[in-house]
Amino acid sequence: MKLEGKVALVTGGTSGIGGASARLFAEEGAAVIAVARNEKRGKEFESACREKGLNVSFLPCDVTDREQITEAHKKIHKEFGYVDILMNSAGILRTGGLKEITDEDWDAVYQANLKSVLYICQEFIDELIDRKGVILNNASINGLQRYIKGAKSYMYATSKAALIQFTQYLAKNYAPDVRVNCLCPGMTETNLFTNRDFSRFKGCNLLDRMAKPEEIAKVALFLVSEDSSFMTGSVIVADGGETLK
Predict the structure, then answer these.
(1) Which entry of 154, 156, 169, 174 is annotated as an active-site residue?
(2) 7-244 sits in which CATH class?
């Protein structure tokens, strides 16, 4: 029960790494608010969690919309009073060659992967200061400066690189009141991939397989719990050795 008595807000919290993290945080005692746009999937996720006795509430919200975040905050404040843990896991993946990139695609990726984090951190930072809370931003190894892979990853990789830098600025400016860390997963079986034939990624890392979302969630738990109490501004890689290949 590492998160007993805590209130955790997880964006992109009904599927993939966000969903796995929301479940695990609840298993460890947190009251979890899972935020996402897809109401059908969100309600199904909430029901499945509650059937297992987990304190998970789904809150529909488009985190690329500042007004919706403000309204969501009001609802959270009314029902829960505060937030101790903020995990930003919402994001999208779009790729394209240099001449294939459109304004629409570029803006959509940056809105979802970066500006949404700006909006939600601006909205919740004051109470996180009051609560001596924790922020965890879910980036990617694609955002690491030392790791350039994927000829068409201009949009996704640069948005994640910016998120890593944004995380470290938050850590620098809000220490010691708020701890802020960044998680950089490698290849993980999530719904970011429209092609579900993951056999094509065999051999992508030293462990010769993709991660399960639950494996990355365990790292997320470490970073939002007191187990990582002396860590802030850290960029934690969980990639099965992919960046060493």
Answers:
(1) 156
(2) alpha beta
